[in-house]
Amino acid sequence: MTVTVPTDPAHRTAEEIGRTAAGPRPLPPLGPTREVPLPDVLDVTLANGLRVLVARNPRVPMAELRLRVPFGPDAVATGLAETDDAAVSRHLAAAELLTATLLTGTSSRDRVGIDDELAGVGADLGVGVDPERLQIGGSGLAVGLPTILDVLADVLTDAQHPDAEVLRERERLVERITVARAQPRTIAREALQRKRFGNHPVAREMPTGPDVAAVEPADVRALQAAGLVPGGAILTLVGDLDPHDAVALIEQYLGGWTAPHPARRLTAPPPVAASNLELVSRAGSVQSQLRLSAPALPRLDDRYAALQLANLVFGGYFSSRWMENIREDKGYTYGAHSGTEFVPGGAVLSVETDVASDVTAAALLETRYELGRMTAVPPTADEIDAARRYAVGSLLISLDSQGGFGSTLATLAADDVPVQWLRDHPARLEAVTVEEVGAASREFFAPSAFTGVIVGDAEVVGPGLRALGGVDLP
Amino acid sequence: MGAVRVGVVPDLHRATLSNGLRVLLAPDPNTPVVGVAVHVDVGFRSEPEGRTGFAHLFEHLMFQGSESLEKLAHFRHVQGSGGVFNGSTHQDYTDYFEVLPAAALERALFLEADRLRAPKLTAENLRNQVDVVKEEIRLNVLNRPYGGFPWILLPPVLYDTFPNAHNGYGDFTELEQASLDDAAAFFDTYYAPGNAQVTVAGYLGADVDRVLALVEKHFGDIPARPTPIRPSFAEPLPGTERRAVSPDAHAPLPALAVGYRLPDPGAELDAYLGHALLASILGDGEAARLQRRLVHVDGLVTDVSASAGLMGPLDARDPDTFTITAVHPPSVDPDRVLSAVDEELDKLAAAGPDVDELARQVARWSAALHHEDDRVMYRMLGLGARELLYGRAELALELPERLAAVTSEQVREAAAALRGQGRAVLIVEPGTQPTEEQA
């Protein structure tokens, strides 16, 4: 038997539902702004070179921890240069495997022992790596901070990467990479990174299965000794804690983490050069991934706030020109987003949407139209004010939690952006003029500045893209 | 004023407006942010046969304008006030919410009230949002590996009735058939003020009564309509194992999902929480039973997880699903994975977890609940959903204590209950290309 509820047969019509006797009502004004200043941040560098940023936020009895270690291909360990493709591949594969086995054993704790100790204080730690840096992040009950730091120090100074664990994790990593590479977003990301950064290591965000399969346990242990070092690393801690006590604890547990050389930073990739888009075929796709990119500005550039507002107006939030066009007017997509990505030495603009195969060419046409419109019909004062309110408000919201504030502090510090930049940013956004946004729009959104890729079923989307032009087909 | 205060516990204030709309206020003096959520007591289990996906499609329509707000105006006003927004459709409820700087509280109430009073449902917006929803389904289901695994694929194996078994995202053909009149009927029936609840959380100023007066000002004149009688979705427990195979053209590795029935969280909360902790003991962290056995000792699977609740714990009324999912290499027979799962469940059904093992999972749960409390958005949505589903927002606050009180014996009983009933087994096979119509 099926259980369904018949809807009311005597219901109103859609038209009747949409109006009341009183008619439309006015939008209430905004009330008084509530100022809650960001907490103070204690910023110290330990003798071993580890920089520590700590802030108190007692909202919940937790602590959020982020450790970022620059982790570029390591010349000290292997003598390799970034131009040596095979050596970079070995480094990236070993780095990925290192993250998978970092928490699997030290001289005094095994895999289960590490997890049991963390779980006992409600803590979780996760390890990740990209071409630029290795990150350890997590949270736990604030009262458990000594335990968390004890485990962290143990794995940083004494991770054994036991043979059996490395071999099992190697097997799993190959399987996981296979799964990840089946995801259209991963395929599109890899194609975009290659297109805009060429052979530079920053483009290589995921190793290949064969490269991982070739990594030996000794390679992982060597990489830990050479690369996972405190000089230039940054530890951020936000939570229900006293910052000075927390720094003393960090000194106590992590002071013994030392190395004779600093962590290695990745070099800057070459600037993104304009070109035709490249169509990458994925047979059987029912959607296409559009990924366009152009140069952008780092946060400390005087024009950054203007570019940030220009980007919001173009595609940086729901109420943007591009989203309102291709989603809310045309129905080509569920989501469209543009934003700045920071890379060593600079920044790039990324313009991304997924659309049905049969409207791929049409969506590209509309995307080019909206890019061109940013230069020919620059954002109006009203558009800029809406974007400004959103930029200021969404920043306030994103910082209103331990995790959000901690992640932002960690991200900014890793890019050498001072905390004061964050405190000043709302005022900087308020001061941006219409002319400055117009200048940024013309400079950074010109369609001729872009490169990029489209991933889709070439048999289905190829003819339309060829006819539209500006796309290299496989 | 039509609002009647019906109860105050620390940090929670309740009222019911004269039109039946329930109000929950959760002030927090230490934040510059405020959130407003409307929870409506209808989810995809209630959508009519022949209209799969309609509850979710209707959620999209609620963003398309209302009497005082042209199309796009809702988004623009929320974001132009510095806020963020979203909505989501679950088994038993649909939520709409926005989080903004505290200065925008009254504006947020206005925006939510206008669409609950008089949404502008038009044929043009309906067609546009059918297209958008189809893109959402292509993105999340059709164009990727393991799309809809297990939340769309497992229920039809475990359940027999349409409400519990069908695809909540919807079939394309049925989405395309949705009419404006369907939308009008759905709104008039289910979006009655007596079938909805407003939650306001975050910075509410010094005077909670002032906020209650603002809620009354904006929502109070929505005329009362009959509140639909909520049907029971109960089904008997399956007595045997049911199996199904699902081809997935994009999947590089096989996967399997096992589904069991959970106790009714409304009637047997402690038994339900025993199952929630069982899921943690099986799947959460490197020391969890299935991680150790399946991933490391036997090396059978790439990844494994266990979860109480198809869309998360305490997110639906009865019936809901306990799931175990795994991705494994093609060389491993799924029955070997199932046997190992059964053995681990049998061990727990015989002896229950160690006291320390249980305490560690309770600590992780407490931390996760604090984590939820740290953000106004999650705190608001957690309180609102538990109030709507179980009439007890306090549950969100009491959970750490209630979980700490769960005994090893209760977890043992949960494991025994899973072993004592039938179940669903879904096997995902890499390879065959499904057509769009099948999905």
Automatic annotation (TrEMBL), chain A:
Gene3D superfamilies: Metalloenzyme, LuxS/M16 peptidase-like
Domain called Peptidase M16 N-terminal: residue spans: 95-205
Source species, domain of life: Bacteria
Ranges of compositional bias, category Basic and acidic residues: 9-18
Annotated region (Disordered), positions in chain: 1-36
Domain Peptidase M16 C-terminal: 218-389
InterPro entries recorded: Metalloenz_LuxS/M16 (IPR011249), MPP/UQCRC_Complex (IPR050361), Pept_M16_N (IPR011765), Peptidase_M16_C (IPR007863)
Name of the protein described by the UniProt record: Pitrilysin family protein
Record organism: Pseudonocardia charpentierae
